[in-house]
User: Fold this.
Amino acid sequence: MSENISIIGLGLMGSALAGALLDAGHRVTVWNRSAGKADPLVARGAVRAATAAEAAGASPLVIVCVLDYAAAHQALDGAPLDGRVVLNLTNGRPAEARRTAAWVESQGGTYLDGGIMAVPQMIGQPGALILYSGSRAAFERHEQALSALAAPRFLGEEPGLAALHDLAMLTGMYGQIGGFLQAAALVRSEGLPVAEFTEELLVPWLHAMAALLPRWAEEIEARDYATDVSNLEINQVGLENLVTAFEEQGVKPDLFLPMKAILDARVAGGHGAEGLPGLIEEIQPR
Ligand code: NDP
Assistant:
């Protein structure tokens, strides 16, 4: 079923969102601070709004995708939100999402927050995921239209849940990127081919190690860190070796020093016989 949908913010992501909604046959109204970015979408059938307020007034579903929450507030300030669903797909923090939800509701609107787990080129394609939280009724009302953007996953009515999960997933991603860069530097320090190492050895290894994570997650939930895999004392020797090897090979150890400090503190606290999941108690002390 075709819906009227407005998009505020036509950067790389907002333009991709608008394009996917146009492709799915929706009537899309667009606004961007620099008006020229609307031109390609208008050429594809989108309606140009002269102001953000006009865009918000044009549709029951108003999607915002701008630089940050401050920019989102700036764009929505003074817009007629009464009776509208505001879906904020701008990347932010849980506390910002909660504050924005309260503000939208104070304006008579209904709030949905979203976390986009995709790059613009993936929007509308298999593999793209968008996390949602906030009003369940609003999500269900627009779920079909939103499915044109990415597979939708509703996490709950607490507005900060999408941002929290988005940040948690990015945290895992940046950790993996940090490990990859350090590994690549070590291989390159001997003049060896990084591509061959990555494809043939590192990626299969990371897949095998990732398979351990659900079990570690259960240990974290149970706060039971007994291990039959490898204890912290063994890993302490391993990390010491890594840091020394980095230095010997002319590779900066900086990315790994904080993890080593956390592991050292946990062992010093008398937990050397535990497994690696126990390090969470140093990161987030009770
Ligand atoms: P861009 O830099 O391409 O676009 C930023 C957008 O924000 C532009 O439309 C810009 O308008 C607008 N903007 C900035 N400041 C203001 C303001 N004060 N008032 C009104 N509009 C403003 O970024 P993206 O499109 O890539 O990112 C948009 C959001 O999507 C971000 O929160 C980002 O984290 C999120 N996201 C992006 C992903 C990506 O891969 N690109 C992936 C997942 C999430 P103008 O054109 O006038 O400068």
Remarks:
- Residues 4-157 form a domain with the Rossmann fold fold (CATH 3.40.50.720).
- The CA atoms of residues 176 and 206 lie 9 Å apart.
- The pocket of NDP is lined by residues 9-14, 32-34, 37, 65-67, 71, 74-75, 90-91, 116, 119-120 (CB under 6 Å).
- Strands lie at 4-8, 27-31, 47-48, 61-64, 85-88, 110-117, 129-134, 151-154.
